Amino acid sequence: MYIVVRCQRVVRIFLPEVFAQKSIFTMAAGMISSYLVANMQTSLLFGIAFMTAIWYMRGPKNLPPGPMPLPIIGNLHLLAGKKNFQVFYRMFQKYGGICTVYLGRSRIILLTDINLIKETATKQADNFSDRFLPPLLAWTIGSEGSLFFQNGPVWKERRKFIMQALRNFGVGKKSLEYKINEEARCLMDVMTGIEGPFDPSEYTTLIIANVICNINFGRRFDYTDESFKTIVDKFRYLFGTASLTGFANTFPFLVRTPLYRQLTQTIQYMISYVGKEIKEHQDSLDEGDVRDIIDMYLLEIKRQQESGEEVIFKPEQAWRAIMEIFGGGTDTTTNTLLYGILLTALNTEVQDKVQEEIDRVIGPDRQPCCEDRTNMPYTDAVLMEIQRFRPVAVIAPPHGVFQDTQLAGYNIPKGIGNVQMCFKVVLLSWTS
């Protein structure tokens, strides 16, 4: 439009008789404008393609094969509207057990071969054990205080402490049985009062979240507690939004725009909620009565301060570990239980055999315990088959590469993320 106006002014001044013939002038100006606009679009597209080609060619040589990336978005067009593991599985079928995937301008190495995954965890563990911080987290909460996204001696001490704290509160021990059985009884009481069909996902999430809350906060919540239901819903929203292949991770600057206002508000709500719990624990802390992990965390901070040691556990970072324990434990276990309900409902003959074994070994007068497992081989096999069919995590948390190395004859540059596809590994290792 600017070009057309300028042409009109020139013709009006120097060629008034031509300007009088408006139809001819308008036609000519339109043709010139269309030509210039078309050429501008072509030039822009050419420029983008040229810059992408330069970036692509200047990248590391001899990378694993993979689909050709498009300008700006990389391979996101292949993932849009589809399940990640289904797209990654098709990449495995085409490119083999190792391939390169572009998420925008970022590269990740996708590993789907069990032997290559073993090599990164054993022979090349030092090269592939770096922590990969997703861009979305880098733009929102960073890595300070994290159990999963940090490296170094401070992280090792923090992780060691949290693992010991979890064991102290029964994780991996028989003492956790009581909490689990208590929640199972509460769940049965709720389900018994429901008439007709219902969605078990809400109650399954709440029962698992309550077990984690017992460890983190020292108490369980009623299933009708609105604050409890809100915190669980927000965690589920975060897990659904913060996908490694999502737009927010590919273009993290979007989290500063209204498009992701709900995401940033949810994160702030979670931090505020856990911070409030920590403040209440600080006000009622009793060294003779350690109620939960928060108490242990606060007592460890106090011990370091009094001993004159370097304080590596900071009160302002405590929320991060609590959030990661809650989120990691709730999502994975809930998905396993839901798939267990689905698969046994679809295979009623298996359900009948499991019920028969439960009635014979446990009976109606007591709760199950870990010792029953050795006497229930069929039920144990069904549980393992459920976890084979649907692994705890379809795609393992990403790792980073400490230094330039090689894998399967390909160059793997320092800093690149690598993702392991558990679903495909478990499926093929079973069938082979």
UniProtKB/TrEMBL annotation:
This protein's record includes keyword Heme: yes
SUPFAM superfamilies: Cytochrome P450 (SSF48264)
Tagged with keyword Transferase: no
Gene3D superfamilies documented for this protein: Cytochrome P450
InterPro entries: Cyt_P450 (IPR001128), Cyt_P450_E_grp-I (IPR002401), Cyt_P450_sf (IPR036396), Cytochrome_P450_fam2 (IPR050182)
GO biological process: organic acid metabolic process; xenobiotic metabolic process
Keywords, ordered alphabetically: Endoplasmic reticulum, Heme, Iron, Membrane, Metal-binding, Microsome, Monooxygenase, Oxidoreductase, Transmembrane, Transmembrane helix
Transmembrane segment boundaries: 35-57
Subcellular location: Endoplasmic reticulum membrane; Microsome membrane
PANTHER family: CYTOCHROME P450 2U1, CYTOCHROME P450 508A4-RELATED
Listed name of the protein: Putative cytochrome P450 2U1
Organism: Stichopus japonicus
